[in-house]
Amino acid sequence: MEQKNILSVKNLKKIYSSKQVADNLALNDLNLDVKEGEIFGLLGPNGAGKTTFINILAGTVIKTAGQVNVWGFDLDQNPRQVRASVGIVPQEVNLDPFFSPRKLLELQAGLYGIKEKDRITDTILKLVSLEKQANSYARSLSGGMKRRLLMAKALVHQPPIVILDEPTAGVDVELRQNLWKNVKLLNELGVTIILTTHYLEEAEEMCGRIAILNKGNIVALDSTKNLLDRIQTKKVTFKTDIKININDDDLESLKIVSQLDSEVCVSYEKSKINMDELINLIKKNNVKIIDISTDDGDLEDVFLRLIKN
Length: 309
Prior knowledge:
This protein is 30% helix and 30% strand.
């Protein structure tokens, strides 16, 4: 069954103009579709246009040109419906320290005009594992709880799309894992997730498809797997019984990354060398190979290559 598009963006442009400086093209003819039920990654260095894009969906930045359609609503004709279809989890923790999580969520629901009988405050608190802290002051919550409370605030009006803007910037590894788990849980409930991040392992772990943004342009848009398949360089480490003599030019594209007495790490291009040739080269002076470990590279390689170009 073909998943339908929940968000469709065509030729989206944003130009910030001021009298003092030259016009700044923050988004340049952005085209992308997000499918219902997916976790979609928006990657890019700082200043690539990720936040501008989110702010246009949130209604806090006015686009210069182009079309945005969310959940069947056109941003120009139905701005309120578009805002109601999106929940945004901001990067900055902006919580009133003297409110409890329950009070904050009730207040947020009121702002969205949700009647008391239709509110799902307890369900949301349970979802982000804050039911025990429901009535504590927000200022007494740990960093991780505050992040989860921001997520809860974005869910109050039950939007079909939740956008997480750099959700794990500056948080420790354990907390990051915990947030990932929460996001996946949300996605399993049918919520479409758009995740902006500059942690590439986050995108690799979480996202089915990724768009890479640089200077307002999309430089790649593909499934995570296809993006990873684009990496040409492979790294291999051999542990041997004696030190081996090999040089960079013994095989085309071969480079020695590091060499210790009984361990050598080399990199090569997959298209130019196959593993057998490499093993034969290592073994040729009666060297025994004790262990081999390979590293296929990660999104960082793709990312850096795309952004360099």
